[in-house]
Amino acid sequence: MMQKAQPYLMILPSLVVFALFFLYPIGYLIQLSLHDWNFISPEMNFIGLQNFQQLFADNEFKEVLLNTTIYTVSSVSVTTALSILLALWLNKKGLLYTFLQGAIFSPHVISLVSIALLWMWMMEPDYGLLNWALNLVGINGIQWLNAPETSLFSLIVVAVWKGLGFNTLIFIAGLQSIPKTVYEAADLDDASRFSTFREITLPMLSPTIFFLVIINLIGSFQVFETISIMTQGGPINSTNMLVYYIYEYGFQFFKIGYASAAGVLLLGIISIFTAVYFWLLSRRVHYQ
């Protein structure tokens, strides 16, 4: 009997930590979403699904969902595509390529607060570096963060710049794990570079692509720091996204139940995206 219980006793500390810091917060979040609470009053009023009904009827929330979707799809797809191209270019030996790999990776280790402040200066319409460079070539300056038409695009640029180095290095590691004999066989068959990339490199990189896309999707849905520092969801709600929307209603407007309902929906959206992604693409991943 003791031998059968021993494995469970060994994982018990991990299960306790998992339940305490994962299961309990989710359960408490769901409980809060069913109540009306202002974060100050000691009493919470049970209102059932009214917070969810209010969410789905709110046009601002629908706009936030659209902004989040555009940001997530654009940043993840562009970062993945550019990272693969950079990895193919930098997957070489030599001091120059080693230096370039380190330079490209460096934004990943810089805090998002510092990055946000840096890009705010670069995108400043009057004296920012980007508009200064555009003026040199005769192009009128862009209202990067100050116009609804360009503000979301500006945040996508920052996200791509931030994530490019990490993704590139992971792809380089994936490329270096591909056996050279496979490429030698392709050379013997006179395969073109494009055919080699499509038939060998991409399939062999599929586990790396699968991993990076899913973690980038989850991270993009949870973006907060750049919005909080650079735009505060503006102008005209054009850059407001789910996590910042939850923060606003929870800690600025003190609508804890409403914010918790939005948090439950965010959890559901990420879970659905992850499940669908695994269901659609897991069979296309080649591990050998």
From TrEMBL:
Q: Which PROSITE patterns is this protein grouped with? A: ABC_TM1
Taxonomically, the superkingdom here is Bacteria
The compartments listed are:
Cell membrane
**Bilayer disposition of the protein:** Multi-pass membrane protein
Q: Which residues form the ABC transmembrane type-1 domain?
A: 65-277
Supply the Gene3D superfamilies for this chain: MetI-like
Q: Where are the transmembrane segments?
A: 7-30, 70-90, 102-122, 152-175, 202-224, 256-280
Q: Which UniProt keywords apply?
A: Cell membrane, Membrane, Transmembrane, Transmembrane helix, Transport
- Report the sequence similarity comment from the record: Belongs to the binding-protein-dependent transport system permease family.
Q: In its UniProt entry, what is this protein called?
A: Sugar ABC transporter permease
Q: Which organism is it from?
A: Alkalicoccobacillus plakortidis
